[in-house]
Amino acid sequence: MTHSYDETENQGRGPEEPVVVRDRRRVDPQTGQVRPPGPAHAAPEPEDAPVEHAGPSLGESIVDESVSVVSDVEKELAERTADLQRLQAEYANYRKRVERDREAVVLGAKATVVNDLLPLLDDLERAEQHGDLTGAFKAVGDKLISGLQRAGLESFGTEGEAFDPSVHEAVQHNTSPDVAGPTVTVVMRRGYRFGDRVLRAALVGVTDHEPGAAPVDPSVGGELPLGGGLDDQQH
């Protein structure tokens, strides 16, 4: 029964209609231009017509040359990066300058305190020269001098040093053939420097080189020149 029913329905339908595909695209894929408005139903393309693709062909560049390689965003990013690097360098220099100024202020404050203690060091030195720096008094003095030296205090001005007018103040001057040049031979007050700063010049006596006596003439001393007598001298 089912087979007879299907055959009756198929006989009433007739032959199947072919499928028609209409191209309704506004842009022509072959020329790339906009199509003019036409009838609603365009002629169907033949079934054996090749299928066209809108993509580029083999070897064709897909880069639009009208677009700049470096966009405005990339330029702005490069400028901001350069500004950031410049700001970082300026901050590094500022930090170094602040550290240098801070160290200079600290060194200047230390130098001021040490400079006020120099008369006390002079008293300790004179007491040591007279033999009065003994016992607990000597222990306290040694601790004070050691602490100041650790802080950066340095003394100068000893006998035998070459005279340097930038750190020595000459109050005496002598000459002697025993020295080759201006030399410190007497120290009246020791000098001190703190770091690169001279707190006090040393009071010294300077001895300069004394040139030797002129050579003696061989004719002096009662001896006559060889090969001549009194008559020769008169002539």
TrEMBL record:
Q: Which GO terms describe its cellular component?
A: cytoplasm
Q: Where is the composition biased (Gly residues)?
A: 224-235
Q: InterPro entries annotated for this entry? A: GrpE, GrpE_CC, GrpE_head
Can the keyword ATP-binding be found in this entry's annotation? no
User: Which keywords has UniProt assigned to this entry?
Assistant: Chaperone, Coiled coil, Cytoplasm, Stress response
Gene3D superfamilies, per database record: 3.90.20.20, Head domain of nucleotide exchange factor GrpE (2.30.22.10)
Check the record and name the CDD domains matching this protein. Answer: GrpE
Positions the record marks as coiled coil are: 70-104
- Localization in the cell: Cytoplasm
* Signal peptide interval: none
**Stored Pfam families:** GrpE
Highest taxon of source: Bacteria
Q: Where is this region: Disordered?
A: 1-59, 208-235
User: What is an annotated GO biological process for this record, any one?
Assistant: protein folding
Bias class Basic and acidic residues marks the residues at 14-28
MF-aspect GO terms: adenyl-nucleotide exchange factor activity; protein homodimerization activity; protein-folding chaperone binding; unfolded protein binding
What is the purpose of this protein? Answer: Participates actively in the response to hyperosmotic and heat shock by preventing the aggregation of stress-denatured proteins, in association with DnaK and GrpE. It is the nucleotide exchange factor for DnaK and may function as a thermosensor. Unfolded proteins bind initially to DnaJ; upon interaction with the DnaJ-bound protein, DnaK hydrolyzes its bound ATP, resulting in the formation of a stable complex. GrpE releases ADP from DnaK; ATP binding to DnaK triggers the release of the substrate protein, thus completing the reaction cycle.
Tell me which family the UniProt entry assigns to this protein: Belongs to the GrpE family.
Q: Which HAMAP family match?
A: GrpE
PANTHER family reported for this sequence? GRPE PROTEIN, GRPE PROTEIN HOMOLOG, MITOCHONDRIAL
- Give the quaternary structure: Homodimer.
Q: What is this protein called?
A: Protein GrpE
